[in-house]
TrEMBL record:
Keyword 4Fe-4S: no
UniProtKB keywords: DNA-binding, Transcription, Transcription regulation
Protein name: GntR family transcriptional regulator
PROSITE patterns: HTH_GNTR (PS50949)
Alphabetized InterPro entries for the sequence: Tscrpt_reg_HTH_GntR, WH-like_DNA-bd_sf, WH_DNA-bd_sf
Domain of life: Bacteria
Annotated ranges, domain HTH gntR-type: 17-87
SUPFAM superfamilies in the record: Winged helix' DNA-binding domain
A Pfam cross-reference name: GntR
GO molecular-function terms, A-Z: DNA binding; DNA-binding transcription factor activity
Amino acid sequence: MGEAGSMFIELDVYGDIPLHEQIAHQIIAGVASGSLKPGKTLPSAKKLASALRVKSTIVHKAYNMLMDEGFLQERYDGRLGVLVPAPSEMPRVTEGYLDRLTKQLRILAVEGRARGMSEAEFSKACISIYRSDLTRMGDSLE
């Protein structure tokens, strides 16, 4: 758990998801919820790592992953840092994303079916998650 500026990220250090992926997912959730607005500069990797009490290489890895995907970009005004791109520059739905989505949903659908879950129940769960806030960060990201 940590706060850097107005950015709040919660890490599960004992979970199965690597820390850099948790950081990346929560930044994407901030973008999706509108908490991280276009043009918002994120804290330096060193500053965020310090606030989260993790190695800066972990935050660098998250930032690089997000820059590769297009969710963050380097500042071009001579100042160091990364920022949230304009909506027109955000990544779109790609074949790679759809492939990843299909693989992950297939695993969960198979398990749901094995547990006796109906198609309607599975669809309702997916829709509920899609419509949800997508983030526990709420107003702490601005």
